[in-house]
């Protein structure tokens, strides 16, 4: 891995929190992700399943974590199963975790090779009454590929039909949504790498540069700072491309007078940052662009203030909608009649701001969090309003990452990344 090793104390804490929520006499199993084939002998780069990483720090394929807090013997309460390494694997694939190295990474003393998993699981099942299976219940999830986790669940249900079944995901949704201080530091580090990439761009962007050249500059800066690269597929949308919310082709020339919407951010140690900035190709905003830009910035700033403990997700977005409505009236994009005659299910402001304002952030860019429950301190959210005007051939979105505080205003992890019009213009023209 490119990142510096994370202190295993974080993963020890995470496991303790999870096991404290488990039912008596129960087992929980977590599997790594597969390495996915492309064609012939080609594969996609490996990306670890975030749940097993959250609980163990293990960032390697063919890994299994078993938790059994009520096991008869202490050494059975936390167990890791890894693919056995040898000199041949080291030569052809590179170093894999040894048992000692796995302990250093995870804090788990009981480490077995993977070929022992079924035998040991069978023993644990004779002691246990309940199995926690790990299913993907994220509100945005649309999974079409059968994962290693899903295959295990199918096999386990057939092999052990007499056991009770419980779900890991509701526990993880709550635990992962509230960050430990070490996790906030890792997200901050990802944001700091993102800042370096963005500042690099401000001196690079000029008329006739291509979107993919901008992408290349960011990739260079991210990787040279120990990131694997982008936390998600980058959006580098110049001109009218910005009005396609998930534009990812990044293959057009950036023309003088246009704006570039940049939804781009680095990961670090599997933790995501998520930034959006909108900058002028020429280095100067027009008066109209500046007016819309500052309207979006005001909405972002006001929305951020509402991210406090006890805030309800649904009501938060209603209030942001009211602020956006006021700004759109001021810009002349809607009028009072539009508001008076609006459909409550699709308010007038949605014509120009059709997506949500915030989502949880962490190990996943759209991280775990139960939206029907009130916000809590140490949750990390994006704040990303936008105004999209196809008729004027530009769209503007601005996005920061903030931490909910026990008291006071949220802490902005992107506080050092330029966002004010004057600062952006000054840096682009210096």
Detail the topology: elements first, then pairings:
Blueprint: H1 9-20, E1 26-31, E2 37-39, E3 42-43, H2 50-56, E4 63-67, E5 78-82, H3 87-92, H4 99-106, E6 110-113, H5 117-127, E7 130-133, H6 148-159, E8 164-167, H7 169-177, H8 181-202, H9 211-223, E9 235-238, E10 259-263, E11 267-268, E12 271-272, E13 276-280, H10 287-305, H11 313-331, H12 336-340, E14 380-383, E15 386-389, E16 394-397, E17 400-403, E18 411-412, H13 421-428
Helix pairs in contact: 1-2, 8-9, 10-11
Can you walk me through this structure?
By secondary structure, this protein is α+β, with helices and mostly antiparallel strands. 35% of the residues lie in helices and 16% in strands. The protein has helices at residues 9-20, 50-56, 87-92, 99-106, 117-127, 148-159, 169-177, 181-202, 211-223, 287-305, 313-331, 336-340, 421-428; strands at residues 26-31, 37-39, 42-43, 63-67, 78-82, 110-113, 130-133, 164-167, 235-238, 259-263, 267-268, 271-272, 276-280, 380-383, 386-389, 394-397, 400-403, 411-412. The strands form 6 sheets. The chain has a 6-stranded mixed sheet with strand order 6-5-4-1-7-8, sandwiched between helices. It has a 3-stranded antiparallel sheet with strand order 9-10-13, covered by helices on one side.
């Amino acid at each position: 891995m490119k990142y510096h090793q994370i202190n295993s104390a974080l993963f020890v804490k995470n496991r303790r929190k999870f096991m404290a929520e488990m039912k008596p006499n129960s087992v929980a199993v977590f599997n790594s992700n597969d390495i996915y084939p492309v064609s012939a002998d080609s594969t996609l780069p490996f990306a670890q399943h975030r749940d097993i990483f959250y609980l163990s720090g293990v960032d390697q394929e063919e890994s299994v974590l078993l938790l059994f807090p009520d096991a008869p013997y202490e050494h059975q309460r936390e167990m890791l199963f890894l693919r056995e390494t040898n000199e041949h694997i080291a030569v052809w694939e590179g170093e894999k975790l040894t048992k000692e190295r796995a302990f250093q990474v995870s804090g788990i003393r009981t480490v077995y090779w993977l070929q022992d998993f079924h035998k040991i699981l069978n023993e644990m099942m004779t002691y246990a009454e309940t199995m926690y299976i790990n299913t993907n219940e994220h509100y945005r999830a649309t999974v079409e590929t059968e994962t290693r986790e899903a295959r295990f669940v199918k096999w386990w249900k057939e092999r052990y039909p007499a056991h009770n079944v419980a779900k890991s995901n509701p526990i993880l949704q709550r635990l992962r949504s509230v960050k430990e201080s070490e996790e906030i530091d890792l997200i901050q580090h990802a944001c700091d790498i993102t800042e370096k990439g963005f500042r690099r761009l401000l001196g690079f962007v000029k008329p006739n540069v291509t979107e993919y050249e901008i992408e290349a500059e960011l990739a260079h800066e991210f990787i040279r700072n120990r990131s694997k690269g982008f936390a998600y597929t980058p959006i580098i949308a110049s001109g009218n491309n910005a009005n396609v919310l998930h534009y990812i082709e990044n293959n057009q020339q950036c023309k003088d007078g246009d704006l570039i919407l940049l939804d781009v951010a680095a990961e670090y140690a599997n933790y995501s940052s998520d930034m959006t900035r909108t900058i002028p190709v020429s280095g100067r905003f027009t008066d109209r662009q500046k007016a819309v830009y500052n309207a979006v910035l005001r909405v972002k700033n006001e929305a951020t203030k509402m991210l406090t403990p006890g805030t309800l997700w649904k009501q938060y977005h209603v209030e942001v909608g009211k602020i956006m409505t006021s700004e759109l009236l001021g810009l002349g994009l809607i009028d009072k009649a539009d508001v008076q005659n609006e459909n409550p299910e699709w308010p007038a402001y949605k014509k120009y701001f059709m997506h949500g304002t915030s989502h949880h952030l962490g190990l996943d860019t759209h991280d775990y969090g139960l939206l029907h429950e009130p916000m809590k301190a140490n949750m990390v959210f994006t704040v990303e309003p936008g105004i999209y005007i196809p008729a004027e051939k530009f769209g503007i979105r601005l996005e920061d990452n903030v931490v909910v505080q026990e008291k006071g205003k949220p802490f902005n992890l992107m506080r050092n990344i330029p966002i004010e019009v004057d600062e952006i213009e000054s840096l682009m023209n210096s």
